[in-house]
Amino acid sequence: QLQLVESGGGLVQPGGSLRLSCEASGLTLDVLGIGWFRQVPGKEREGVSCFSSALDSTYYADSVKGRFTISRDNAKNTVYLQMNNLTPEDAGVYYCGATVLRITSVQAMCARASALVNWGQGTQVTVSS
After folding, report:
1. H or E segment at 28?
2. Helix (H) and strand (E) counts in the chain
3. Are residues 96 and 73 in contact, defined by beta-carbon separation less than 8 angstroms?
């Protein structure tokens, strides 16, 4: 059974950086479509960045391009999200989501958070001075 555990959230000043981690267990990253999603109160969960080893493809939302980087450590079965130059608009609860189903597009995966069934517990990111 796939389990996802996020860590690394916290309070950071505007312009600061954070690195989120998502450790997967039960399945290896190379069989997963996996990504980071953000949710703020009153809004639906939205895809920030998604990755698929099978497709060798990465997607970033326009709002984070050039500032966020998704990466993985296969030895640790962990996916990271490096977030730089953070703004208050980046704040929210960040969730790691994954699918074991075959995907054809990481962009489509990121656009359809409601279709994913494997989620971590979330980690809070607060950006404030």
Report:
1. none
2. 1, 11
3. no
pLDDT (tens digit, 9 = 90+) per residue, 50-60? 999 889 999 99
Angstrom distances, CA of residue 62 to CA of 46, 47, 48, 81? 12, 11, 9, 15
Q: How far apart are CA 56 and CA 121, in angstroms?
A: 26
Yes or no: say if 41 and 98 are a contact pair by the CB < 8 Å rule.
no
Taking the C-alpha atoms of residue 8 and residue 65, their distance in angstroms, rounded to an integer, is 20
Q: Find, among 66, 60, 108, 112, the residue nearest to 87 by Cα.
A: 66
The predicted pLDDT at position 80 comes to 98
- Two structure tokens written together for 17: 């950086």
Mean pLDDT across 61-90: 97
**DSSP string covering 46-77:** EEEEEEETTTTEEEE-GGGTTTEEEEEETTTT
